[in-house]
Amino acid sequence: MPRVHYVAYGSNLHPLRLIERVPSARELGVVELLGCQLTFHKRSNDGSGKCHLHLHSEQKEHHKVYGVLYEFDSDEKQRLDELEGRGQGYSEHHNQFVLREETYMAYLYSTQSSHVDTSVAPYHWYKKMVLVGARFHALPAEYIDYIESIPSKDDPDPNRVKNREMLIQRMHEYSHKTKRQT
Asked: Could you tell me which of 50, 54, 100, 133 has the fewest CB atoms within 10 Å of its CB?
């Protein structure tokens, strides 16, 4: 089965989140996206902000986003495209990433300009999902602090909150189980 390479930088950072969406997903490692800043300015259909890669014209040391390079079976890509809203707020962007002296051509989702909105904020549960993934991969403390500093808001849909909080709990359990085995 052919494999595709994908860089997650938002709610798919945590392996359990991605495995529940594309079961063949396998983590390859952490990569840096230079010249970018993580914001939550992708306007979502649910009224909140999702992760957005803000590209800076000048690449400076502090303009960096951390992502995780994953690979999975190509026949699962369409499902992830649908779940992520490819063509409905996100586009597919390809780039080369070097990890342990090997070069990968990988794709990531970038916000379509029609969906960039600096007035939106993420729901609390969404920001938590990004943070759980960032902590799982032991991303730098200053990067995690930056994500924590992003204002978030209550989700008015109690059923969605309950569903996402259950997912976050499973992510924590997966993290603890995985750490005990390593």
From this structure: 100
CATH number for domain 3-181, candidates 3.40.50.720, 3.10.490.10, 3.30.70.60, 3.40.50.170: 3.10.490.10
Residue 139 φ/ψ, nearest 5 degrees: -65, 160
Q: How many CA atoms lie less than 13 Å away from 143 in the CB half-sphere?
A: 24
Quote the CA–CA distance of 150 and 157 in Å, as a whole number: 21
Q: Residue 100 corresponds to which amino acid?
A: R
Instruction: Please state, as a whole number, how many other Cβ atoms lie within 10 Å of the Cβ of residue 177.
Output: 10
Domains of the chain, by residue range, sit at 3-181
DSSP β-bridge partners for residue 116: 42
pTM flag (> 0.90): yes
Give the contacts of 181 (CB within 8 A, at least 6 positions apart): none
pLDDT tens track for 137-156? 999 999 999 999 999 999 99
* Sequence letter at residue 41: H
